[in-house]
Amino acid sequence: MNTLKQFPYEQVLVLGLAKSGAAAARILLENGKKVRVNDFKKEENNSTAQELRNFGIEVVTGGHPLSVLDDVEVVIKNPGIPYDNVIVKEAIHRNIPVITEVELAGLLTDGPIVGITGSNGKTTTTTLIYEMLRGSGEQAKLSGNIGTVASEVARESEPEDILVMELSSFQLLGIQTFKANVSVLLNIFEAHLDYHKTLNHYANAKAKIFENQTKDDFAVFNLDDDMVVQLVDQTNAQKIPFSATQPCKDGAWFDGNMVYFKEKPIIKRKDIVLVGEHNFENILAAIAAASLMGATPEAIRHVLTTFQGVRHRMQFVREFKDRTFYNDSKATNILATSSALNAFQQPIVLLAGGLDRGNDFDDLIPYLKNVKSMVLFGQTAEKIKAAGNMAGIERVEIVDNVEQAVQHAYAQSEEGDVILLSPACASWDQYRSFEERGDMFVRAVHKL
């Protein structure tokens, strides 16, 4: 078990529990820190709070009294808690640092870290890098937004372990010293503006992945995304581009037939089984990052000729009566759904809708050309219907939930159609997570 190194604080407030908060509290206690936990949920409905209290941690639940900041030297907040939260605002006012749990991960491990961020494609890219490294005999471990909490993985890691971390803008905004040996920035698209308020604030949060890198580190970046190209200028790391459209012989690139890393041929495009142009960019990023960490061309080829996607991200579910069903529940914004729609030539019955973050869906209209009908649900159903009507889609239905949507989609489909769940919205209006939403879709498909 690894211990915290160079963590200069003795009295810590953990704000918000969930998985990352509970992990941080336990690790801090193990390292002799004085820990206080504050969670808005009342204790009678909060088994994690009760468990931490049994460990001897001071726990305050059912609200956010400012007194929880008394004598505190640092706040470790749940990444999803916004910066206009009353405790966070007061901490900043008192000049108390506010960080996220991923900062602890960097202080707990002596091994290398590969950090992956971007608006879309993080989970797929992270999984590809992990599989490529494992296939090459490297001791890679998944952590962060995918799999286990980053600090828990780092706590148990060996110096030779490579931590492959999926990192959100929420996590990165709260780092001080955290550093990835290889950072990956996939793309920037307008997202999470309810949290970050402006696109620039959101992009700068993503760019913090470069902040502490040195000339001995690597920054893998998307040469085809203008905002990413601007942001990577901030890093001191060695810049490694990837591009699906232009040669970049110091990175990962494509000549129309063969994929290369630098001058080394890796795989023919036609041999890659993962569908979608957006996934091709993810593949190029993964090839670059994995190669820098020692993955072999043979292992990379094996992964790319067998890997068909992660759950809830363009996940093939089944073929039934010549209809093909795909679960893309992780498509929580317009760009992700646009990419999914671009992946198919067949007629599509689109299932979409979810949390209303205040945006319209006009940007989706150019990508609806293969959509023959739509079945919508959630808070944004009427807004997406308006976009569908503007795109000339004649059949648009609104239903109560994903399970009903599957039944209606199948009823209006024909042989040869793709039935695609790609919501273009977060799930929190009706479901606890995009995983829960996707699982409901999969169950409903199999019930057919």
From TrEMBL:
Signal peptide: none annotated. Pathway: Cell wall biogenesis; peptidoglycan biosynthesis. One of its GO terms (biological process) is regulation of cell shape. Residues 116-290 form the Mur ligase central domain. It is an enzyme of class 6 (ligase). ATP binds at residues 118-124. It catalyses: UDP-N-acetyl-alpha-D-muramoyl-L-alanine + D-glutamate + ATP = UDP-N-acetyl-alpha-D-muramoyl-L-alanyl-D-glutamate + ADP + phosphate + H(+). Keywords: ATP-binding, Cell cycle, Cell division, Cell shape, Cell wall biogenesis/degradation, Cytoplasm, Ligase, Nucleotide-binding, Peptidoglycan synthesis. It comes from the Bacteria. Its EC number is 6.3.2.9. PANTHER family: UDP-N-ACETYLMURAMOYLALANINE--D-GLUTAMATE LIGASE. Cell wall formation. Catalyzes the addition of glutamate to the nucleotide precursor UDP-N-acetylmuramoyl-L-alanine (UMA). This is UDP-N-acetylmuramoylalanine--D-glutamate ligase.
